[in-house]
Amino acid sequence: MAGTDAKKSDDRDTWNHTTPVTFSPLFDWPPSPKDILLTLTKRWVTLTRNVLFLLMAWLVYRVSLQDLTTFQSLSANWILPVFLRNFLFMTLIAGGLHLYLFTLRAQGKKLKYDHRDDLEKSGKFSFRNQVWDNVFWSLASGATTWSLYETFYLWALANRMVPSFAITDHPFIFVAWLLILPVLTSSHFYLVHRLLHWPPLYKRVHRLHHRNIHIGPWSGMSMHPVEHVIYLSSVLVHFVLPSHPVLMLVHLYSRSLGPAFSHSGFEKLLVKDTAIFDSADFHHQLHHRFFECNYGTVDAPWDRWFGSYHDGSDEATRRVREQRKRMYRSKPAD
Ligand SMILES: [Zn+2]
Ligand SMILES: [Zn+2]
Q1: Exposed, middle or buried, 170 (CB in 10 Å: 0-12/13-18/19+)?
Q2: What pLDDT is stored for residue 3 in this prediction?
Q3: Separation in Å, CA 294 to CA 4, 95, 206, 281
């Protein structure tokens, strides 16, 4: 259970954020078509991590996935490059963000949520070092599970076991996939994340991720192998619905590389005081501090509908603390 860690983190005034968390207007009533259209399209037409993932997926598709016959039989000749590519991508993105924000401290503490400088060096982490612990779980388990899903998909696609379409035949379906993907992944994340907070699973599996209270880019994919399998299972939708390899890769990159941004601890990336990229996700930062709130993301309103929403306000902090007290009174602490 989250009790012990949550109590420890609760007493610290560790975060620094002024604007409340707001949800996507997609499910607001009455609907505002202009806001909905803006929210759905903005991430694909402005400089965001989604555009970066789409470009990477397109490049990988053009360079490596043109001849599907290569993937018809399981062979180290193509599986090894899949693994190496994904290990490299994760090292570049999570390692690059860590280098920029925590090693070089290129933007100091500007737009940093947590006032502490360094990540932890304590016995609760493998190697008594949070960064090395996070790097280990992200690469050894995270990049491996991601690569296994990718390998399985390419093999199934080459053997015509999954439905697919050509972009030139159905460009609108391709765009519709991109627009709906954040809502789909957000909903899946909410569901599996609630499941991971079920005490038996929390204790054996999800607790590994929650050892990270002051979070950094490598914390995002620092999870137990069972959590990686559950968390990345949202990509199984491409085995059922007609899809395209680029969509599968964008989906995998957003799930596997997106957490490096969302856990970076800095709201935006600055170059000489100019914001160039949205980075951390305050909604999820609050989850790492208060544990029993914000299980999903702002792309789908499940936390709002089920009363687990923390918007960063003092009132929400009081409410979540009250809820947690009730929860821990009714369950034995671990
Ligand atoms: Zn997290
Ligand atoms: Zn959690």
Answers
A1: middle
A2: 41
A3: 19, 26, 15, 11
Tell me the whole-structure pTM to 2 decimals.
0.92
Question: Which class for 216: exposed (0-12), middle (13-18), buried (19 or more C-beta within 10 A)?
Answer: buried
d(CA 172, ligand 1 centre) in Å: 33
Give the domain ranges of the chain.
3-330
User: Could you give the CA distance from residue 203 to residue 25 in angstroms, rounded to a whole number?
Assistant: 35
Cα of 34 vs centre of ligand 1, distance in Å, is 31
DSSP H or E run through 194: helix 171-196
DSSP one-letter string for 205-250: IIHHHHT-SS--GGGTT---HHHHHHHGGGGGGGGTS-B-HHHHHH
Give 46's pLDDT tier (boundaries 50, 70, 90).
Answer: confident
Separation of alpha carbons 251 and 273, rounded Å: 31
Q: What is the mean pLDDT of residues 67-71?
A: 96
* CA atoms of 160 and 174, how far apart (whole Å): 19
Nearest partner of 114 among 277, 272, 260, 285, judged by Cα = 285
Residue 325 pLDDT exceeds 70: yes
What is the whole-number distance in angstroms between the Cα of residue 286 and the centre of ligand 1? Answer: 10
Calculated CA dihedral for residues 65, 70, 74, 75, nearest 10 degrees: -100
Ligand nearest to C-alpha 193: 2
**Cβ–Cβ < 8 Å for 189, 268:** no
Three-class DSSP category at 114:
strand
How far apart are the C-alpha atoms of 77 and 73, rounded to whole Å?
10
Task: Report the alpha-carbon distance of residue 75 to residue 70 in Å, rounded.
Answer: 9
Distance 231 CA to ligand 2 centre (A): 11
Q: What are 254-288's pLDDT values in tens digits? A: 999 999 999 999 999 999 989 988 899 899 999 99
How many A from CA of 157 to the centre of ligand 1?
31
Cα 78 to ligand 2 centroid, rounded to whole Å: 35
Cα 197 to ligand 2 centre (Å):
6
